[in-house]
Amino acid sequence: MNAYWYSIQWGSKPRLNKVKASGGCHRFSEEFIERSSIKSGRKYAKAHLIRRYIVTSNNYPDLSSLKHVSAQKVSDHIFEQLKESIILKEILPEEQLPPERELCSIFNASRLTVREAIQRLKEEGLVEQIRGAKGGTFILPLTAKIHEKTKESLINQWDEFQDIFVFRNFIEPYTAKMAALNISEEKIEELNQLNNQISAPCEREEFRSNDVKFHLKISEIANNIYFQNSVRMIRTKINPALDLLPFNEGVRKKTYEEHQFIIESIEKQDKSTAKKVMYDHIFGTTNKLEEIIRE
């Protein structure tokens, strides 16, 4: 609530002044002030009686939900988008980022800004830059050192990760339910193609990439931007932790079969079953991660 003081200035022409009050005071006051003035080069004293009323209130609304803000550079936004794409396996290890000129066009930013973002990716060990005719910026593969760092982070922030997993256990099953209500033959074909890529022999990174695409595709089929954004945010948060999970032919086969159950229930528009099989699928993943941090 803004507070103002009103004053009546008495002179040859009395007038009412309105001025915003400063400070968080809570008071009602009257003040009498004498002032002198100079007019037309002739000095004389004139008494002005100013009666000032200040009324403020401390009945402010509860604003405890507001948080500090900090200025974020354009390069920070670019860095976060590229990092998210790397974490979600939309860009795989050893793949090359577009040239600086193209990145400038994509982000509508200057070369200096793009270079700042790439430098941050280098500092986090996500990319490397190679000079020469066949050079460029390439995504680095995951290393044992990165896995160890991820595991340490998972242990230290386990409470936060548990909150994310609880959120995931709610969001993704309902996303599958919504997908069952909005499914089409074309979308079923897209899901089958993604799952068939998981069934074929592949490396860990390709497997993880196809798994992310499968879950994001279901959120897209749900036809709700809030579900879609939530699933993307969840995967961005947990994907480094999922990289800690073992990968072998048994894991690949089991994932394919569970995905197939999800596809079949969505295709039948059986929303209850779609919700249940998705819950069972992701709940098992959470249990495996809990076993890892106990080791």
Automatic annotation (TrEMBL):
**Keyword Transcription regulation attributed:** yes
List where the protein spans the membrane.
none
Record's keyword terms, sorted: DNA-binding, Transcription, Transcription regulation
GO molecular function annotations of the record:
DNA binding; DNA-binding transcription factor activity
- HTH gntR-type domain mapped to chain residues: 72-142
- InterPro entries assigned to the protein according to its UniProt record, in alphabetical order: GntR_C, TF_FadR/GntR_C, Tscrpt_reg_HTH_GntR, WH-like_DNA-bd_sf, WH_DNA-bd_sf
* Alphabetized SMART domains for the sequence: FCD (SM00895), HTH_GNTR (SM00345)
Q: Which SUPFAM superfamilies match?
A: GntR ligand-binding domain-like, Winged helix' DNA-binding domain
Task: Kindly list any coiled-coil regions of this protein.
Answer: none
Name used for this protein in its record: FadR family transcriptional regulator
